[in-house]
Amino acid sequence: MSNYQLETKCLHSGYEPKNGEPRMLPIYQSTTFKYDTSEEMGKLFDLEKDGYFYTRLQNPTNDAVAAKIADLEGGVAAMLTSSGQAANFYAVFNICEAGDHVVCSNACYGGTFNLLGVTMKKLGIECTFVDPDLPLEELEKAMQPNTKAVVAETIANPSLVVLDIEKFAKLAHSHGVPLIVDNTFATPVNCRPIEWGADIVTHSTTKYMDGHAAQVGGCIVDSGNFDWDAYGEKYHGLTRPDESYHGIIYTERFGKKAYITKATSQLMRDLGSIPSPMNCFLLNLGLESLPLRVERHCYNAQKVAEFLNDHDMVSHVNFAGLPGDKYHELAKKYLPNGTCGVISFELKGGRETAVKFMDSLKLASIATHVADAKTCVLHPASHTHRQLSDQQLQEAGISTGLIRLSVGIENVNDIIADLKQALEQAR
Ligand SMILES: *Cc1c(COP(=O)(O)O)cnc(C)c1O
């Protein structure tokens, strides 16, 4: 599918029905697959032949959707997971073990912060968090001899910090490690990090890719560009024999697909968290309309951000589409067609005004979610960061009046009218 434009790939990549086959991607809702001889089945277990035998490892519905996302991101292979959390965990754990270290942007999703800072630490993998806006020379200081990966988000959730991907690629590559970029908020419609030097791309497909709040899922895409053999000592899991598969060497046997094959055949085999074929079917439906939806999300968010920016009750708006935003220039470079539909803004009057505003909304719903078709809002001080005191909130850079707004694809005039009346109620 590589000659088609992205909009076409969203509809056609990954599944091409043959004569008389279903036009729509079928749901292979089966745990297992049947073979005529035990020898054929044996070859699958040895990774000698490509094929399906048990859905924890691979399933045709899942694989079709993974192939579509790999094509959209410009990668060579992809693996779907049951959540975005599982995707980020596997992306790192596939190349790290006890005694290793990773560097991660501190502008990242709370779940990623906990995963790398707390849970993976218990596995013996340490993480240093860095301010992504620091110059390269400063970032270099975080790199250690045992660093195995650099991790960051194209547009960070929820801070909306835009990543200088080329700077981070330089940081990673000058130390012989891959750059892993979580591209959830931008989606491949607005940015393809591999084109800027990222080696591995991850997604929470729960967000825009699905787009309808119907399924929780994740994805890891491999660019195929990182030369694991050149740093074979560091990545011996890929470059030395795997005793759990009769001594095969992933880079030797699978070339550019070594990383994803190892993730599937080791991590999925041993840790599970495969998405259900039904959920992959729903994700595929979402992907078909992704470019149309993303375009509308961005259009609506721009109008809403401009409205809020001009409103006397709003003290500040974070949205890289606004010319005055700190990340406007980076967004112009990496996301020239738009960033995403998520905005955060600060209400004068703090917590009380924020709560009154939220409770007065009629169209926008209060939900712990972002990046789907329906407009929703969240007040971090009362929800995601509820356990923090006002002082702790301040230290975390979250003011009591901060609202996170995920602009949906309703008619933008209806969204703005709703915000307007709720702001008046809160005045
Ligand atoms: C939501 C999110 C995740 C976690 O994904 P789940 O599907 O909720 O597990 C990871 N990264 C980013 C940027 C996210 O927005």
Quickly list its features.
alpha/beta, seven-stranded mixed sheet, five-stranded mixed sheet, 17 helices, 12 strands, 38% helix, pyridoxal phosphate binding, O-acetylhomoserine aminocarboxypropyltransferase activity, transferase, PyrdxlP-dep_Trfase_small, O-acetylhomoserine aminocarboxypropyltransferase/cysteine synthase
List the helices and strands and how they pair.
Blueprint: H1 6-12, H2 38-45, H3 60-73, E1 77-81, H4 84-93, E2 101-105, H5 110-122, E3 126-130, H6 136-140, E4 147-153, H7 165-173, E5 179-182, H8 187-190, E6 200-204, E7 218-222, H9 236-239, H10 250-254, H11 258-271, H12 277-288, H13 290-309, E8 314-318, H14 328-334, E9 342-347, H15 350-360, E10 365-366, E11 376-378, H16 390-395, E12 402-406, H17 412-426
Parallel strand pairs: 2-3, 2-4, 4-5, 5-6, 10-11
Antiparallel strand pairs: 1-7, 6-7, 8-9, 9-12, 11-12
The structure holds pyridoxal-5'-phosphate.
Order of helices and strands: HHHEHEHEHEHEHEEHHHHHEHEHEEHEH
Mean pLDDT over the full residue set: 95
- Portion in helices: 25-40%
Structural class: alpha/beta
Low-confidence stretches: none
Task: Name the quaternary structure.
Answer: single chain
- Tell the overall outline: globular
End-to-end gap = 54 Å
Question: Could you write a compact summary of the structure shown?
Answer:
The protein is an alpha/beta fold and 427 residues long.
Overview of this protein structure:
This protein has 17 helices and 12 strands. It is of the alpha/beta class and 427 residues long. The protein has a 7-stranded mixed beta sheet, sandwiched between helices. It has a 5-stranded mixed beta sheet with strand order 8-9-12-11-10. Helix 8 (187-190) links the parallel strand 5 and strand 6. Helix 1 runs antiparallel to helix 3 (60-73), helix 3 (60-73) runs parallel beside helix 12 (277-288) and helix 15 crosses helix 17. The longest helix is centred in the C-terminal third of the chain and has 20 residues, at 290-309. It is globular, with a radius of gyration of 22 Å. The N and C termini lie far apart (54 Å). The model has no long low-confidence stretch (mean pLDDT 95). Pyridoxal-5'-phosphate binds at residues 83-85, 88, 109, 111-112, 153, 157, 182, 184, 204, 206-207, 216, 218. The modification N6-(pyridoxal phosphate)lysine is found at residue 207. Keywords: Pyridoxal phosphate, Transferase.
